[in-house]
Amino acid sequence: MGARHSVPLMPNGQPSAQALAQANADDVNSWGRPPEEAPEDEKDPTELVLQSWAFCKAKPTPQKMYRSDADERKRRQQVNWRKRASFIELDCGDDSFFVANNYKVIGVADGVGGWRSEGVDPSLFANTLMENAKLFAETHRGERDPEKILDAAYTKVVKDGIVKVGSSTACVATLRKDDDGTHKLDVANLGDSGVMVVRNRNMHFRVHEKVHGFNAPFQLAVLPPPMVGRAFSDRVRDCVRESVPVQEGDVIVMGTDGLFDNRFNSELCADAGWIGKVEESPIAKIPLVGFFLSGILDEKIDYVDPYRVAQRIITDAYKISVSPDANSPWASMLRQFGQTGAKGGKPDDITVLLSRVSTREDLNNNTSW
């Protein structure tokens, strides 16, 4: 999360979010382990799921540029819980993400980089929070309330005590089916990460952010006693809750602020939309032709391969983030706050999680995972 800090606050006399989580932590050790095979009720080939791909890039620092083999092995061990090999190899800096193996729950988190000056690894809180969210979603497979999933994950962070100090924004989304057969994407967003729904390469929906002020997002935290009441430590129930109808072929773009600060909504929709259905496009009905022509019609996308699309989205965002002259959402926001002539991107860790609303049959037939 760049150089953001847990900004001092005035105590209000209310129980801290950390204290509330501790009080509600009685059952976090009873989650058990996820099933090794998908349950029978998750084998319907027509069921809609979130077919997901991820890519990320850490903000350039001397430490990351010259990481030793031992440090890299340690980093991979810390994210082994992601399970998928292509996810474990990703170095997201202080960002983190998860995809539950029921393919109905996804999330991202952005560790607050300001803790680094206190000798704290900001990625530990974000990774632990996402690991817990994944575990809860996989052991409580029918739970579709993203706020409950996030609350359980945070409660376990506090209860386990592995993270002594740290904080993070967080965003969790779930796919559920209503009684009338329609599907909804439910989102709980605490902070300035984002979720977009792309349909026909246009923005169908974007979740609102939750911030205290400029560059000061809401965040979950574990604080040492001297800092309780003096630093941001928000409650899970402070999150933005939104729901949007989705359908097969929609594309979900979930990312940390490093993505949305450096790419405009229209750019993300145009790029991410290549992996979804485009109903008005004649080539969408001819998959092989569409696959071939995509590299010609839009030179920014090498192939209509979701992993390559995610990779290219991050590459483009990274180029903007380190450019002093580029126009970016970040520069546009600075100008709105009075910095006339502001330009350039915002150096930050950048993470994108692309999900296509697909049938379980399509998911199982996909050989690129």
UniProtKB/TrEMBL annotation:
Organism expressing this protein natively: Leishmania tarentolae (Sauroleishmania tarentolae)
Coiled coil: none
Record EC number: 3.1.3.16
Catalytic activity: O-phospho-L-seryl-[protein] + H2O = L-seryl-[protein] + phosphate; O-phospho-L-threonyl-[protein] + H2O = L-threonyl-[protein] + phosphate
Positions of the UniProt region annotated as Disordered: 1-46
Example GO molecular function: protein serine/threonine phosphatase activity
Keyword Ribonucleoprotein: no
Keywords from the named record: Hydrolase, Magnesium, Manganese, Metal-binding, Protein phosphatase
Name under which the protein is recorded: Protein phosphatase
UniProt cofactor(s): Mn(2+); Mg(2+)
Top-level taxon of the source organism: Eukaryota
PROSITE patterns associated with the record: PPM_2
Protein family membership: Belongs to the PP2C family.
Residues covered by the PPM-type phosphatase domain: 76-357
Pfam families: SpoIIE (PF07228)
Entry keyword annotation includes Flavoprotein: no
